[in-house]
What we know:
By secondary structure, this protein is α+β, with helices and mostly antiparallel strands. It has 12 helices and 6 strands.
Amino acid sequence: MAVTITADQVKKLRHQTGAGMMECKAALTEANGDVEEANTILRKRGLASASKKAGRATSEGVIGNRLSADRSTGILVEVNCESDFVARTPDFQQLVQSVLTEIEKAGNAANDAWLKDPSGPVQKLIAAGIAKMGENMAVPRFVRYADRGYVAQYIHMGGKIGVQVEFAGVTPAVGSREELTTLAKEIAMQVAAASPMYASRDGVPAAVLEKEKSIYRAQMDNSGKPANVLEKIVEGKLASFYRQVVLPDQASIRDPKQTVASVLAAAAKTLGAPVTVTRFARLKVGEASQ
């Protein structure tokens, strides 16, 4: 039985890939309506970019943030509403602060189930906010880092994007240095601007790597090149993939001639300590509802 392809599916795939409408419809038909599979089909045909074009959601709200004085604990939370007008009101801003306080109080007990518990503190705050401000609201996600390293944050576009980065190797002496503050801000801004997905190459799942390799091989199916040459080309393409999605492999936004890895290495030399990024998070308003 043929699957009916909707206009919304075609639109979503076009947003993800930049491919033409007819190509998207054909790929969706071949994939029986599965948008992710259709995306892969288009990439194998060379009709789509390697990464999705994220951040096209329409929901409003802000990314709230809180950072402890000693920078050992940091919280980011996305709080959504229907209009940017409401998002800018003092009542909504206070709601965001109240949600942050509840996450802070819950500590390690704060998880996704806790967040979405209808009888829990966050959902009670949201219900009260909806009643007071007259718009639908939600808290789809939060990120909390605690007691594992030095935490830095960066808030961009008035709260539309929030970044949190955790560093290892920061001793008390290093933690008070201005050079570390400068480095932390630069790396957080890098995450905000370049949207990496992984803190290291080792963090890329094997399944993701294998999928990328299969796509590159499919793109060269009829090239006639020997297998050993094809594998070298695949490895070259994989290096390009790493430069897109792995933070240390990315070109620095401050100096594109340097990689983030070289920026970190130079800073470690200046600071006298091997400072590294262990994890990071980038939240953009609306992405959770895509």
